[in-house]
Write a structure and sequence with these properties.
eight-stranded mixed beta sheet; 334 residues; globular; alpha+beta; five-stranded mixed beta sheet
Amino acid sequence: MEMDFEPPFLKIYNTLLEKNLGDNSENDLYSKVEGSEELPLIDLEKLNLEDPKREECMKEISEAASKWGFFQIINHGISNEILNKMISEQKKLFYQPFVNKLSAETVFNLSPKTYRWGNPCATNLRQLSWSEAFHFALTDIPNMDQHITLRSSLEDFATRMDTLAENLVEILALKVNMKSNHFQENYLPKSSFIRLNRYPPCPISSEVFGLLAHCDTSFLTILYQDSVGGLQLMKDGKWVDVKPNPSALVVNIGDLFQALSNDVYKSIKHRVVAAEEVERFSTAFFYCPFNDAVIQSENKPAVYKKFTLREYRQQTLNDVKETGDKVGLSRFVL
């Protein structure tokens, strides 16, 4: 018997399964993965030291953002206590009966589409994400009166992630000749959000992804993940496994920062593999401006025309509807 908290993937996607299972027209789904990589690991402790150590650390951050688009950070100032509490609250949430999760908006007093699973638009197995997620807008969290411990875990996590993201974007801004307070001046109030992810064990793990390949829209995303692993990113045209490091947070550049930096920083495609035996948890913080914030590089000649986050999100929705996928920044190239 399936546990009552598991989303009914096999039942709901039965038609896709019958149609596509074993149809490896593009060979094996994961055949193009080439080894595993250690992401650049940056010790933020050095930011508290005198120059040249501090300057060196800032340079490491901007180099990783331009060469990799991804890096790991340690001594980031977020205690294990806060991270562990977040994961334990997250598990309680995901282990609620599936029917309760479907009505999460009413149960938790939140915005529509707080709970997501699978991919309602999938027309074949390649478009199916074998995962479930809760998507919390930071502005929603204070309304969760019925769920005090979950609310306080989310608040602690969000407050510290926000400060960390703020510090990182200021450093990255300086390195592309922007004022360090550019974000404070142009992008408040923020529309940042937290996404709690669970990747259930998957009986057809060689046929589907845990999370489809995508680039993040945000300025910056900070991820806390367990030690199961499964994150892969595109490096030099090849997929590589990212080795999990339990004591580090993973940071990646989003589309908005790639546009703002005029392509100096890279928003890189990444995905999560499905695992047959184990479940995986991760918690992501997406640092975003308000919807009408104008994204425009101050560096000339500009690669992208100026756009607002609202326009970008709308374009993404249209593209997903028409092509089944997000097209992203190429839509805004001058």
